[in-house]
Amino acid sequence: MEEAIIQTDDRQVFRISPLIRGTLLLLYMALMAPLPVMAGAIKAQGTELAVSPPLLAVAIGLGGVLLYGALAQRVEVDAEGISVGYPPWIGWLLRSRWHLAWSEVRALKPRSTGQGGIVYYFIGPDQQAYLLPMRVVGFNRLLQWVETHTKLDTQDIKPLAQPWMYGVLLFLTLLLLLVDIWTVTTALQPVAALS
User: What is the pLDDT of residues 159-180, one digit of tens each?
Assistant: First the structure.
């Protein structure tokens, strides 16, 4: 497994928290994995489906790979600036890489989200906004880099979601997986009886 933070004296790489990555991947699996099984059970009872269960399984698998790639985002900081991007295997598809030199940072501006949270944007040249990644392991160390190199005050900036929130989501996801197992098992019993 990749390290969450890679650090040298003049460079540091931050990755999305394993708790966040694991929880979101598990939630995707809990929501999507039963669908091909359920579709297969429905098809076995003679009902026509718009999408075949194997094709549905392939689409869900591709969606899982895309989600895994999106959660592989990494933030790199050094004495020159900050870069946000993805590993090359998925970066060509997501193409949302950006780099901002510390000398170009004019301000850090808060903006409220639709869910009532607050996110922060670096304001760069020509008032262009760059989202400060807030779900990385070592977020406080990232803020230290920002404060050291830009002289902006980052004391009031807090992570968008606290770890306990993802802990609760993980717990609920595990409950959903138990319900999935029961549902799939129940759905397959009539199919087994028909065989």
Answer: 877 788 899 999 999 999 999 9
Cβ contact 155:148 at 8 Å: no
Asked if 80 and 101 count as a contact pair (C-beta separation under 8 A), the reply is yes
Alpha helices in 33-162 (DSSP H): 34-44, 53-70, 88-94, 139-150
**Mean of pLDDT values over 28-54:** 84
pTM value > 0.85 = no
In contact, 44 and 194? CB cutoff 8 Å: yes
Q: Which two tokens stand for residue 128?
A: 């262009």
Q: Which residues contact 19 (CB under 8 A, 6 or more apart)?
A: 163, 166, 167, 170
Question: Rounded to an integer, what distance in angstroms lies between the CA atom of residue 184 and that of residue 18?
Answer: 28
Per-domain residue ranges for the chain? 5-103+134-152+159-194
Question: Amino acid identity, residue 4?
Answer: A
138 Cβ partners below 8 Å, 6+ apart?
A: 4, 5, 12, 14
Closest CA to 133 of 157, 151, 116, 101: 157
Distances 41 to 25, 57, 98, 177, 195 between C-alpha atoms, Å: 25, 14, 46, 19, 12
Handedness of CA 172, 21, 24, 187 (dihedral sign): negative
Q: State the pLDDT at residue 186.
A: 83
